[in-house]
Design brief:
- By secondary structure, the protein is α/β, with parallel strands linked by helices.
- It contains nine helices and eleven strands.
- The strands form three sheets. The protein has a six-stranded parallel β-sheet with strand order 3-2-1-9-10-11, sandwiched between helices. A three-stranded antiparallel β-sheet has the order 5-4-8.
């Protein structure tokens, strides 16, 4: 698989440097974080919390935070896999100019990548919707534990967004905490369904894409416009696009090269082919 022309084209493009990475949930599956579609390309049954429901209902916020409190433990235990480490190593070699990630798990940074734009925010931070103060998720976790002594719930599944699936009655007695500065509503510092990615962040991603010598997509089906727009922009500017994903993607027609392959082993092999000269 890795000796064929598509992999050789990948090696040649990355060796030239100036690469921008666009990563999706498929990059983190080897770290134990589920993706939205899986190798079959079929969407998993996930009903995400919308921004409108979150701000409009205290009961919805209670259910959300009960689920997220349990799910955060799973995300916090996750460690970068070979794919994350390979991206960070390529950046250290001067071949990757930046990373645009659709993921909210922070694993690129944990692996050592420096120039990362979190398109959808990060689960490791919490934002107050009233005063805008941002605090760490670890701080919130300690506050929630203190406010819910002895509370435990049986988790049936972890969703790609870090929420745990619980029975509704298990969230009934969960106590939510508010901002310590102003008493406002707290929300993970991520973009919910029904919200838009902040425009300055989108423009930063466009600018990074436009400066790229190649755009390499890792583990994204590109089903939603949020990431797909950068593939379209690269293609419009005749910037080569490479897509490595298990299963077809919406961007395949724009790609110079597509590889249907596991990311960890493919990126590890890429590093080996490039060798120590870089």
């Amino acid at each position: 698989m890795l000796a064929g022309p598509p992999f050789g084209a990948l090696v040649d493009l990355v060796a030239g440097g100036g690469v921008v990475i666009l990563s999706g949930a498929g990059l983190s599956t080897e770290s134990g974080i589920p993706d939205y579609r899986g190798p079959s390309g079929l969407a998993r049954r996930v009903t995400p919390m919308t921004y409108q429901a979150f701000v409009g209902s205290a009961a919805a916020r209670r259910r959300f935070w009960a689920r997220s409190h349990q799910g955060w433990r799973h995300i916090a235990r996750a460690v970068p896999n070979a794919g994350h480490h390979a991206v960070a190593e390529l950046e250290r070699h001067g071949l990757v100019a930046g990373v645009i990630t659709q993921n909210v798990d922070g694993l690129h940074q944990t692996a050592g990548a420096q120039h990362v734009i979190e398109l959808h925010g990060g689960l490791g931070r919490v934002a107050c919707l009233a005063c805008g103060q941002r605090t760490s998720r670890e701080t919130l976790d300690r506050r929630l534990r203190a406010s819910n002594p002895g509370w435990e719930a049986r988790v049936t599944r972890i969703n790609p967004d870090g929420d745990a699936v619980l029975a509704d009655d298990q969230a009934e007695g969960f106590r939510v905490v508010d901002c310590q500065e102003c008493g406002g509503l707290l929300k993970p510092d991520v973009v919910f369904f029904g919200e838009n990615v902040p425009r300055p962040r989108v423009e930063e991603c466009y600018a990074l894409t436009e400066r790229a010598d190649a755009l390499v997509v890792l583990g994204s089906s590109l089903t939603v416009m949020s990431g797909y727009r950068f593939v379209r922009r690269a293609a419009k500017l005749a910037i080569p696009v490479v897509i490595i994903n298990q299963g077809p993607t919406r961007g395949d027609d724009h790609a110079l090269v597509t590889l249907d392959a596991p990311l960890g082993s493919t990126l590890t092999a890429l590093l080996a082919w490039l060798g120590p000269a870089h």
